[in-house]
UniProtKB/TrEMBL annotation:
Pfam families: ABC_tran
Species in which this protein is naturally found: Parablautia intestinalis
GO molecular function per UniProt: ATP binding; ATP hydrolysis activity
Gene3D superfamilies (UniProt xref): P-loop containing nucleotide triphosphate hydrolases (3.40.50.300)
Keyword terms of this UniProt record: ATP-binding, Nucleotide-binding, Transport
SMART domains given in the database record: AAA (SM00382)
Identification of the protein by name: ABC transporter ATP-binding protein
Length: 288
């Protein structure tokens, strides 16, 4: 089966901006959560805009459910639930009014399910959204996105600014969504601990370019960071070094085969590496 979402060589520039989204290629398989990380301004929101066709890409192809999406493809849009960071709906609406609008937009809108989410999330139906806390607004957006029975959820910073308890609740909702066969999630986030909890793959974007995609298993068992002294660093096989970063007396070296590195370099400490540390090494490190 083809992937649920597939980007091939997607590029985009903006007038009066030096930024370039540069031939971004990655895919989200059916049944997987893909975490999308990158520094501020790396191009995550731009990529999501290109996927949803709210931003016109310059080149490349994007396939959703095996098809390129055109403006008139409402059928495809119904299969996608979207949650943005920040204001998803007009502030003067309440949840009840929102559901009235959604009923008209989505043929698959499930009022019963929406009301269940309102109850589960403890959201008042008649309070104006402008009086909601940030957590309540995000939960409402997630409830609305899930209530038209999408197959693919696209979330741009949907858990940012939420406390750990609220984030955990929301991650549980995503995991429940994943219980259904062939559901997938694209989750852009700066909160890498959330991604480490739920993502099957993590895609790293840096300065408009896709650096790499790693699976959860590769992250746990393969990628690692060697803590070298200068003299040890000088003796490393350059082929083993993905990137390195000098820090005072130490040099951190990212490797893709931690077990191999432990065998090969017995006098060097080889640590597990977190998503945050990979990001730092990719953004601030150097290549041989
Ligand atoms: N409409 C636009 N016109 C000009 N430049 C834009 C426009 N939209 C985005 N950009 C630029 O594109 C770059 C990438 O922005 P984008 O919002 O995609 O990054 P991001 O990875 O989502 O960042 P963050 O994590 O801070 O949300 C930035 O330099 C931004 O200024």
């Amino acid at each position: 089966m083809a992937d649920i979402l597939e980007l091939q060589q997607v590029s985009k520039t903006f007038p009066k901006s030096n930024f370039k989204l540069d031939k971004v290629t990655f895919s989200v398989p059916y049944g997987a959560i893909l975490g999308f990380v990158g520094e501020n301004g790396a191009g995550k929101t731009t990529t999501i805009g290109c996927i949803l066709n709210t931003i016109t890409k310059e080149s490349g192809t994007i396939k959703l459910f095996g098809k390129e999406m055109k403006d008139a493809d409402t059928g495809l849009r119904e299969k996608i639930g979207v949650v943005y960071d920040g204001d998803n709906f007009p502030a003067y609406w309440n949840a009840k009014q929102l559901s009235e609008i959604m009923k008209g937009v989505y043929t698959q809108w499930d009022q019963e399910l929406f009301e269940k989410y309102l109850k589960d999330f403890n959201l008042p139906a008649k309070q104006k959204i402008k009086h909601f806390s940030r957590g309540m607004s995000m939960k409402l957006a997630i409830a609305a996105a899930l209530s038209h029975h999408p197959q693919l959820l696209i979330l741009d910073e949907a858990t940012s600014g939420l406390d750990p308890v609220m984030r955990d609740d929301i991650l549980d909702v995503f995991l429940a969504f994943m219980q259904e066969e062939n559901h997938s999630v694209l989750l852009s986030s700066h909160i890498t601990s959330d991604l480490e909890k739920v993502a099957d793959y993590i895609t790293f974007l840096h300065d408009g370019r896709l650096i790499m995609t790693v699976s959860k298993n590769e992250l746990a068992y393969d990628y690692a960071v060697m803590r070298c002294r200068e003299s040890q660093f000088q003796k490393l096989d350059p082929q083993d070094i993905l990137v390195y970063r000098k820090r005072d007396l130490w040099i951190d070296v990212l490797v893709s085969d931690g077990k191999g590195a432990r065998r090969k370099y017995k006098d060097i400490v080889v640590d597990h590496v977190s998503v945050d540390e990979i990001m730092l090494l990719l953004v601030k490190g150097e290549q041989i």
